[in-house]
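Methods — Computational structure assignment.
A single polypeptide chain was analysed. Its primary sequence is given first, followed by the predicted tertiary structure written as structure tokens.
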Amino acid sequence: MDKFYHSVRLDEELCMGCINCIKRCPTQAIRVRNGKAQINSKFCIDCGECIRVCPHHAKHATYDKLEVLKQYEYTVALPPPSLYSQFNNLDDVNIVLNALLMMGFDDVFEVSAAAELVSEATREYLSENPDKLPAISTACPSVVRLIRVKFPNLIPNLLPLNPPVEVAAILAAQKAMEKTGLDRDKIGIIFISPCPSKVTYVKSPLGTEHSEVNKVLAIKDLYPRLLTCMKAVGDDPPEIGTSGKIGVSWGRSGGEASGLFTEDYLAADGIENVIRVLEDMEDQKFTNLKFVELSACNGGCVGGVLTVENPYVAEVKLKRLRKYMPVARSHMQAGAEELVKWTKEVHYEPVFNLGETMMESFARLNQVERLLKKLPGLDCGSCGAPTCKALAEDIVRGEAVESDCVYFLRDNVHKLAEEVSRLASDIVEGDRDSYEKFKVMTKYIERISDEMTQLDRKEGRKRNDSKGTD
């Protein structure tokens, strides 16, 4: 299986070559080349920020459609707690669960129920492994991928437990096989995702060999039909929910940590804030912490790009919903501990290295430093890279050239113009050879000037596009 599978894709026909995405990508995985954006699969962590900021809707997430239900004899929906936060005045999760059955699913298994099992296993892990603290949550696939490629020293701090969606899928599959007697391949375990990173996790999981989730749908796709079915369910639906406050709280930032019954935790949301926390952790700036909860999306999973509600409004809705729920309704049964634990280690992927060896990396780093002295340091993005340093690294890797920088090219054109001027002054009347050289040089400088004019116009369009989206 390709470890660099990605659910975030680019539609080149819609891409206008603006620089909004390259400026917001947290891992600098996007470049604009030949007027179109390009995503470097090795750097991308599928956080979905480019989808969020693209004014031309050229970035999108790949996921399955509701028609996949027809591929299986028996289907089980895995609704996440963030799904409950999308609806106004919801006071009973059973309305949503019964609406899913009405939509065509044969059964439902709440991810929030599995989250309560993971919370229980996390509390046990923290008490049994004081030497590996603070433990970093592994519920957000984008954060795990970010640590894997950029913060190798923090890999030992990763909580070696499956995310709730995986635990829910394992238990749902077991339950379905026992109930129906069907073979596993005839049962479809279908997750309803708030973000593209969960889609990527299913295709290329971390911490386990393969995922038990078969298909992934998007909340925004199901929302209209689900809303209609919820109205048909009524106000007094059959009770099939199996989770409480702890599980439902996982849908928002800080919810996972609140289920650990400790005050020695840190919770951060938003990918830029996450990177800042990880950098401080690597510098050992935090002390006396037991747990670190990090979510790539603002507000937590309620802020995923595949949701429909404002993340902060959704967070308030989730708090209101959990107000009268029991603390927890799902508990670890005998033998369930093995279902929660990782079965495969996560390893460092040095995708940002400049060279194959340490000596080569140091040598190329020196080249980058020399290039930075020549570049203007404006980080304007006109070259198609987010910063001057990123351009310098691309040049060293052989993926760009110095003339990609508009300002560098402009300075070179001025130098060339001075050379032409000096050549003209050296021409002696009747010196045919010098005159021919002058004509060639004049044509060349005219061509460069035309290219510079086009670049200036392109730069102006990019600035106008950026202003229009501020």
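Note: The radius of gyration is 27 Å.
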